[in-house]
Amino acid sequence: MAGNWKMYKTPQETATFFQRFVPLVSGMSQCEIVIFPPSIDIAAAVASAGGSNIAVGGQNLYWGKEGAFTGEISAEMLAAAGARWVLVGHSERRHVVTHETDADVLKKTQAALAGGLTPIVCVGERLEEHKAGKTNEVLVKQFAAGVAGLTEEQFAQVVVAYEPVWAIGTGQTATPEIAAAAHKLIREEADKRFGTEAAAKMHILYGGSVKPDNIDGLMKEVEIDGALVGGASLDPDSFSKIVKAA
Ligand code: PEP
């Protein structure tokens, strides 16, 4: 169960969140819990989560180890700050903040793994593609260009998140059936490239307006292994309710 804070919260607000959130989820071992704060808050999050069952991740990384890349952060820097996970190819980075391509996603995923981080690779179709019935085509293309280029060993360490862009931050969640069908398709693509066993082991998260009142329906689908949660992860009570549905 992953919480993507996007560009919200200061270091002080991060510490305040963890003071409330840590006791709410302590002792929960049925799933991994990861918070993805803005990079400026990672140190505060790691310090506040210390000794708990909550891990911390970065929202983005650059594939270089170091160098003249103003504004960027490497996997090694994230790991040194105590992060263990990283989001790659979030739709806001593909379509809003920058124009990350599938080729960038592959390079970032490889860099994350080389730097010792677990990447959550995000895929998902935009509203116009959804309306035009192109969901499968988009997912196959994003998987082929962004994930299928990994080695079998690399693939075994990757988590995938299906995040239909039309459902992110809109309050319009995909139905459990729509999400499960997309997850099944992604698993079939993984099966073709990496084999049945590796595909069955892959964890696929659903993301897109997940809230405490819709998580149970989503988690009933066997294809849905967890959730990537934006807005509802900013509040400790709301995110702890979601985590408890795992
Ligand atoms: C996200 O940020 O990945 C996300 C799914 O956001 P929200 O839950 O707010 O739709």
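^ phosphoenolpyruvate complex. Residues 4, 6, 163, 168-169, 207-210, 228-232 surround phosphoenolpyruvate (CB under 6 Å). The longest helix spans residues 176-194.
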